[in-house]
# Entry
Amino acid sequence: MYMRSLQIMDSLNYKQGQANVYSTIANIYFTLGDIKKAQANAETGLKLARELGYPKEISSCGIILADVYQRTGNFKDAFFLFVRSKKIADSLNNDDLRRETLQKDLQHEYDRKVVADSLNLVLERHSNELKVKEEKNKRFFLYGGLVVLLFVTIFVFNRLRITKKQNEIIAKQKLEVESQK
# Structure
C-alpha cells in the first residue's frame, strides 16, 4: 500500500509526501527487523527532506536512521542524528506550541468579546423592557386620568343639571307663593 502511495506521489512530483512515505516505510522495516531496507528508505527520505527543507520529515527520517545506526553499532552517527533530529522536533513543537498559545489567546479574546456583546445585548433588552413598561404605565395613568376626568365632568354636569332643575322648581314655587300673596 505504501509503495503504491509512493508511486502516486512520484507521478505527482509531490516530494514532501514522498519523504513522509519513505519515513513510514523505513519505520515499518525497522519494526520488522529488516535493518538494510529501513536504512535505505530512511536515507532516501532524509535526502529528499533535506533537499526541500521539510523539517518535520527531516526529524522523523533522522530519528529512524539514528535508531538504525544504533542497531548497526554506528553510535557516533546515531548520536549525532538523534540530537540533530530532536532539536528539529523540539523546534517544531515550540512553533506548534506558540501557534497553539496564540490561537488560545485569540480564542479567549474572542470569547471575552462575545460575552461582553451578550451582556450588552441583555442590558439593552432589559432597558427596552423597562422603557416599554414605563410607556405602559404612562398610558395606563393617562387613560385612567381621562376616565376619572370624564366621570368628574359627568358628575359635575349632572349636578349642574340637578341644581338647575332645583333652581327652576324654587323659582316656580317662589312665583306661586308670590302669586298667592
